[in-house]
Amino acid sequence: MRRGAGTDIASDSDEKATQQEFVRSGEQVVCAESAVKEVAENAGLDGIPARAGVGFDLAFYQDIIDHRPAVGWFEILAEDYMEAGGLPHHKLRKIREHYPLSVYGVGMSIGSHGPLDKAHLLRLKTLCDRYQPGLVSEHLGWSGLGGMYLNELLPLPYNDRTLEHVCAHIDEIQTCLGRSILVENPSTFGTFLSSDKSEVEFLSAVVQITGCGLLLDVNNVYVSAVNSGLSADGYIDSFPMTHVEEIHLGARPLGRNEVPDSFEVSHARDVAEIVWQIYRRALSRAGAKPTLIEWSNDVPAWSVVAEEAHQVDLLLELTEKNDDRSA
Ligand SMILES: [Fe+2]
């Protein structure tokens, strides 16, 4: 799981401030009135601009607060912030005062055959109510069944039966949150015999049925293409770009046991040139879109991430200029 909030040692004043702001009420965390007002006052920071964003890691906090870098927005992993209080929330609230925020979840298991975890959904709603993110996204996959949970995001077959389940789950999430969400293309390890649709056809149908948007993860496109033997360019060329509201630009996929023709997902290294190429191709079709520099493991120094964000901003600027010229 990426972008761990981890543990940290709060100062007494930090803890007191946090405790005063939030109270627990059964399973749900209720946002205190002062915090709601504070977020509301930041309404001008709610939209996610078509710029580079960075996955917020607590290790970046001091650099961000001290220097207020020109980063367009930050993204958090929803599951890292589902507890009521503590230093992670205290720091995130400070970040939110100055930057737009996006929330990315991996725990709803929208591809499961069974019902959604209602308590988890309520925790996600509480988090969204608390921080008013500009975008909320979930991964297309499943990670639990019958009350058991796996620390994996698993792919699913693409057919009418799974389409029905996925759309019902997205409907339920969107109704609960009172907003539309984005669904992210997963990384897969091959194709299922029971699939009768391509992933692009499946996601296009999901968008048409639920009205959700899409999060295009170009690293996942590359990993899936390598594992399935399909063309990453073909995937990008057929993807319904008009519904893409965010792009994930992940780190370089690691070779599994250094075997060059089989890859697993990792976001633990810098962005590989091949992934940059796929990203540029996506921009040429989609136009400039909010793009997350996605790190999860071995998170580097802030200066490294900031430089990568700068490179993405330059590309997005160029894309916008080219679009203006051809308009
Ligand atoms: Fe991603």
Classification by helices and strands:
alpha/beta
Low-confidence stretches: 1-43, 252-270
Helix content: 40-55%
| Each distinct ligand | fe (ii) ion
What's the overall average pLDDT, rounded?
A: 82
Per the CATH scheme, the topology name is TIM Barrel
Order of helices and strands: HEEHEHEHEHEEEHEHEHHEEEHEH
Proportion of strand residues? 15-25%
Query: Helical region count?
Result: 11
The outline comes out as globular
> Which second-level CATH architecture applies?
Alpha-Beta Barrel
Rg over C-alpha atoms, rounded to the nearest angstrom? 19 Å
Main beta sheet strand tally, sense and closure: 8 strands, parallel, barrel
Q: Strands across the major sheet, in which order?
A: 3-4-5-6-9-10-11-14
Distance between the termini: 41 Å
How many domains is the backbone divided into? Answer: 1
How would you name the CATH homologous superfamily? Divalent-metal-dependent TIM barrel enzymes
Q: Strand tally, please? A: 14
CATH class: Alpha Beta
How does this structure look, described?
The relative contact order is 0.13. Helix 6 (160-177) packs across helix 7 and helix 8 crosses helix 10 (273-286). The strands form four sheets. The chain has an eight-stranded parallel β-barrel with strand order 3-4-5-6-9-10-11-14, surrounded by four helices. The protein has 327 residues and is of the alpha/beta class. It is globular, with a radius of gyration of 19 Å. The protein has a single domain, classed as Divalent-metal-dependent TIM barrel enzymes (TIM Barrel, Alpha-Beta Barrel), CATH 3.20.20.150. Helix content is 42%, strand content 20%. The structure holds fe (ii) ion. The site of fe (ii) ion (FE2) has 5 residues, from strand 11. Residues 184, 217, 248, 250, 294 line the site of fe (ii) ion.
